[in-house]
Write a structure and sequence with these properties.
InterPro entries: LRR_dom_sf (IPR032675). This protein is α/β, with parallel strands linked by helices and about 450 residues long. It contains 15 helices and 16 strands.
Length: about 450
């Protein structure tokens, strides 16, 4: 068929599947004007400058924007996690002038993540604060910025912001955010504050902003050693429609959990006393759509066991809606895992930490029930005393026909099925790739919302 005769409205649907890999879009740029225009839209809609890539890519990208500002209008999501370091004073001044002037053209930018420490400036963040469509901002501390000016709650700034993520907050940013959140907190739908054993934000701080945080659907707090359930519950009672909650490395007790969360779908916690876990289970009992639970331990001398009664209650309450179960550095027995596999028919992602990983037992007792499983990651010690290799995991691919990714400890393999009959196990292969270290301040498993 002549591509010139294709209805224009079909072109985005044809090109969109190629957007997962930008290299696949490059040949499309040369087809014709219509395909080229749509390919450019896909190429520039999400721009990510990541730590493992060349730092000078940032310079090249913003130079391109400087000479063709129309490209900036195509960018909807921008991640700055890499930044050139070896710059002279003159080069640095020139780069920041280019960044500041170019960002004014990003009028369709919706999501900005700028997490490279000591690279964000007051002028840059000032421009960002006035962008007309910016809805999500992720920043970290370690920047010499006049936060008090940037987060002054004036109508011209942060008009469309509904998601705020603050990584490793220091006192300057915490001080500036307090009045902003007190006056503009009601516009937020999602708040994430991730620290590392920090006391900058405590119960008093959270209680002072709780009154205006009334429209949250997602709340993630981590590494705040002076935050307890007292202030968390004070926020949650004002947000009955919360759907995602992450409470990681906090000072939780089982005292103040007299709440219900009937709409919660995602819960992520660090291991705590069974009293806290039981209270959280009570809170999510009314939820009819709970689907994702994550738990891990941190900073403990030995790995704890997840109480069997807790896991059994969780499974009995939500077995027909649970799709994601991640248990990391918290031990479960083979018997517990078998029970989960028998009772949860809709699991699509499973991370499990066993004292001893016996792939033979897993394949006979669990794998036949993993009919919808797409991602499997095993942690623990091998029953043979030897490292589990790719060939030991291939039988899982043969049994679990929907499996797309399988992992053992720090290694992950992507499943590639090929040939005419993808259900034929002979046409399944595993392509190995090492886990890439994420540029995140807090090493928790992250939920996809």
């Amino acid at each position: 068929m002549n591509i010139q005769r294709l209805p224009p409205e079909l072109i985005p649907n044809i090109i969109e599947p190629l957007s997962a890999n930008p290299r696949d879009l490059l040949p499309v740029l040369t087809l014709n004007k219509e395909f080229s225009h749509e390919a450019y839209k896909q190429l520039y809609s999400f721009v990510a400058l990541r730590p493992w890539e060349r730092p000078d890519k940032l310079v090249e990208f913003f130079d391109a924007i400087k000479h063709n500002s129309e490209l900036a209008h195509l960018v909807k999501k921008l991640e700055i996690r890499s930044f050139p370091r070896q710059l002279s004073h003159i080069e640095r001044v020139h780069l920041y002038d280019t960044l500041t002037s170019s960002l004014t053209h990003f009028t369709n930018l919706e999501i900005l993540s700028w997490t490279r420490a000591m690279t964000l400036s007051t002028d840059i963040l000032s421009v960002v604060s006035t962008l007309p469509r910016l809805s999500e901002l992720e920043i970290n501390s370690g920047n010499d910025i006049r936060y008090d000016d940037i987060f002054k709650p004036t109508p011209a700034r942060w008009r469309t912001l509904h998601t705020l993520k603050v990584i490793l907050p220091d006192r300057s940013i915490a001080r500036a955010l307090r009045p902003f959140l007190q006056q503009r907190g009601q516009q937020l739908r999602s708040l994430m504050i991730l620290a590392k054993e920090s006391g900058v934000i405590d119960d008093k701080y959270l209680n002072s902003i709780a009154g205006s945080l009334t429209n949250l659907h997602q709340l993630s707090l981590g590494g705040l050693k002076r935050v307890t359930d007292r202030s968390i519950v004070n926020i949650l009672v004002r947000n009955p429609h919360i759907t995602s909650l992450a409470l990681e490395s906090l000072s939780l007790t089982s005292t103040h959990w007299e709440i219900i969360m009937p709409y919660l779908t995602h819960l992520s916690v660090t291991y705590n006393s069974s009293g806290v876990l039981d209270k959280l289970l009570d809170a999510i009992r009314p939820s009819k759509s709970f689907k994702s639970f994550t738990i891990y331990s941190s900073g403990m001398d030995s790995l704890p066991y997840l109480p069997a009664e807790f896991l059994e209650r969780l499974v009995n309450m939500h077995c027909y809606t649970l799709t994601t179960l991640r248990i990391h550095h918290v031990l479960v027995t083979q018997e517990m895992l078998t029970n989960v596999s028998n009772k949860c028919p809709h699991l699509t992602e499973l991370v499990v930490h066993l004292p001893i990983v016996d792939t033979g037992i897993l394949m006979s007792e669990c794998a036949p029930n993993w009919t919808r499983l797409e991602k499997l990651h095993l942690l623990g010690d091998s029953s043979t005393g030897k490292e589990i290799q790719m060939e030991h995991l291939l039988p899982f691919v043969e049994i679990c026909q929907n499996l797309t990714q399988v992992g053992w400890r720090s290694r992950v393999w992507k499943v590639h099925r090929h040939g005419q009959d993808t259900c034929d196990s002979r046409h399944s292969r595993l392509f190995e790739h090492e886990l890439e270290e994420e540029d995140e301040a807090f090493g928790a498993w992250k939920d996809e919302h």
